[in-house]
Amino acid sequence: MRSVSKAAWAIVIFALTLIVLRLAWGIAGIDFFRKEVIEVNASPTQTPVSTPAPVTLEPPTATPAPTPSPTPNTSDFSNPYLVDYSFLDGLSTDYFPDAGEDGSWFPGKVERDTKTGEVTYVWDRHTETLQLLAKYNAIYRKNTEIEKNVAYLTFDIALETGNIESILNTLKTKQVKAIFFVTGQYVDENPDIIKRIHAEGHLLGNHTETHPNMTKLDNIGFVEQLNSVKNKIDRVLEIDYDLRYYRPPEGICSERDLALANRMGYQTVFWSFAYRDYDLDNQPIPNDALNLMMARLHKGCVFLLHASSSTNAEILPYLIDYIREAGYELRRIDG
User: Fold this and answer.
1) Which entry of 156, 202, 207, 277 is annotated as an active-site residue?
2) Which sign, positive or negative, has the C-alpha torsion 170, 172, 175, 178?
3) 3-class SS at 241?
4) 156 catalytic per annotation
5) Contact between residue 312 and residue 163 where contact means Cβ atoms under 8 Å apart
6) Best exposed site among 69, 156, 162, 211 by fewest CB in 10 Å?
């Protein structure tokens, strides 16, 4: 009985085991089948791609260009305080090396035989001085290298004495053109004469505002002296007058002066003949003055005559005639 019971229990246990295994297998099979169906019918797994946020493109930040240094002003002298004067560095304000104690200009000595016309240059200014004049395009004698004999009449005028009317009448009658170097004060006091000089085809030159020793002025003062005359002439003539020639008072000059005037657009004009016609209380005897001029006439001669001189007003017609008879052509300084 006990044996049967054990056998029965064994059979029961075996049967229960099969039942459990069957049930387990069924459940696993169902899960496997479902998994296969899901994997077959499902869409392929996509890795979600995130939509990028819109990017705002900003223009590249420009590297600011360096602010250029202002170009040095070395050509516009309308405002002398804004000029870069560095181009004058190292230039001397001393008188010319062969100048006298007062620095005034004097020409070399020339002798002319009035009978034969032969000219002898007894002595001249030092080579260093002549080289400075050439370097800055200054005028001492002019057109000495051309074949034709030429001469130039230049007048300085700072004081009205009533003689310039006679001088202008002579020039008009003789059909000669000249240049008149005027001061600012003269322009102020004699606008009608300035207009007549211009209207009759003569040139106006700059003889400074107040006739100072220009070598003693600083750069700004130098420019102001010339600008003042230019501005006054422009107002009188009501034009932008092309003032291109400058004569230093008494011819006192330095290399600095030559360079600065040249940069301002001026030619500095000296002379190769002058005499004591400026002393109004002791005027030269007319005949003696004429003879002296005849004996100093030479090729390229630049005459300095003061328009305030009564002697010059009296002898001018005879001087013009003599110069022409000697075979010279009288030209304006720009010719």
Assistant:
1) 156
2) positive
3) coil
4) yes
5) yes
6) 69
Q: Find the catalytic residue in 94, 306, 321, 334.
A: 306
Written as six digits, the tokens of 45 are 């797994």
Distances in whole angstroms, Cα of residue 185 to Cα of each of 189, 210, 329:
6, 7, 33
Mean pLDDT in order along the chain per 10 residues (335 residues): 50 54 45 38 43 48 52 86 98 96 96 97 97 98 97 98 98 98 98 98 98 98 98 98 98 98 98 98 98 98 98 98 98 97
Q: Please return the burial class of 108, using the count of CB atoms within 10 Å of its CB with bins 0-12, 13-18 and 19+.
A: middle
The whole-angstrom separation of Cα 299 and Cα 144 is 6
Alpha-carbon span 108 to 271, nearest angstrom: 10
The string over 143-176, giving b where at least 16 C-beta atoms fall within 10 Å of a residue's C-beta and e elsewhere, is: beeeeebbbbbbbbbbeeeebbebbbebbeeeeb
